[in-house]
Fold Glycosyltransferase.
Amino acid sequence: MRREIHMFFLPFLAHGHLIPVVDMVKMFASRGVKPTIVTTPVNALLFSNTIERSKESGIHIGVELLNFPAVDVGLPEGCENADLTPTSEDGNWEMITQFSRQHSCFNSPLKSCYKNVNQIVWWLIRSSIGLLMLQTNSGSPGDIKLTRNQVPDYVKQDAETNSTKLLKAIKEAELKSYGVVVNSFYELEATYADYYRNVLGKKSWHVGPVSLCSGKNIDKVERGNKSAIDEQECLEWLESKEPNSVLYICFGSRTNFTSSQLKEIAMALEASELQFIWVVRKQKNNEEEDDWLPEGFEKRMEGKGLIIRGWAPQVLILDHEAVGGFVTHCGWNSTLEGVCAGVPMVTWPAFAEQFYNEKLLTQVLNIGVAVGAQKWVRLMGEFVERESIEKAVKEMMKGDKAEEMRNKAKALAEAAKKAVEKGGSSYSDLDALIEEISLRSH
Ligand code: UDP
């Protein structure tokens, strides 16, 4: 009989990391691995309901809490997540980063959780493998071009900053790791996966898309945070619409557009005459209408457009047949969730590794229309004018090109579902990974 495998997961403290790690943990647990997520109290609350529900269905996930000294390091009480930091200053980001780095070492308070473990193998969890090669300059097949302006500051800067230090630490961890677990599926980026394994000779397991493990609506609604809209209200709104007629717009958990950019988006949406669900992170103020909305916008859009202020049940929305296109900032999770939903995308990268993901959608998979963002700007993105937005969303939603992209996207969505089913490539890779861990822990 196989010995019990106990795995510890230490997700980076940001929604975009916690969400896929929790999904991945559920996948490992469903194959008999005993998982423990190590995180801080505020972050644990974000997925406590998910863990309870898993328990009811016989899947046990342990949580080990570490206190985050927010106040001691100059952050407000409870500020334990990169998305909660009050300003975009590098210093705040550094606090969160440093904490994640410190606790991934053995000379940390985590020692107590590891005490019964007889052998430890480090695994690194990454997103797209093509992205990984671009980021680490390890060479890659194909002819993908990025301008200098689209490359992250921390990649091109010579001077050492907090972000360059983080990237360096990631690269070093990569070298020390036994292998790389990838939230992607082989068929999505086969050329890159083969190149990574065969030409660069590195070990990797494609086990995703991990978002496909949220089978029930309630898991989709509560994925990552409490939704700002009632599930029924959202579904009823979508059900009143024709298939492929609604545009979904969301820029993830970190991008914060200025009021003038939001106004520009509103004007483009109105001019496009399309139906839409638009997720805006800005909360409503006390005045009658938000200052970033054109006068009378919401009244004119009644029945046609829905604005969600705060956290949206993204996967629930994307998976609805009424949704026919996705305007995305190209975060890796959103990119993959769009692929799984089989929708074409308008790519609007702002910062981080988002420009790389845009290239995958527009130049490799051919299911994306670029909005035209040319410059990497941390947390905010470059200002894009309404004409460009209107043109891109229309091109994605209507006409022959839209149809062609939608067919390609649907085929990829089918391939993604097959990959995670029994006998599929990701299912088999996860089996192989667990088998290899089991062999190495004897
Ligand atoms: N997300 C969501 N509702 C929101 C905003 C984001 O469910 O209102 C989820 C989204 O489905 C994805 C994650 O948050 O799983 C965002 O990760 P991504 O890598 O796309 O971008 P980041 O937030 O890291 O920039």
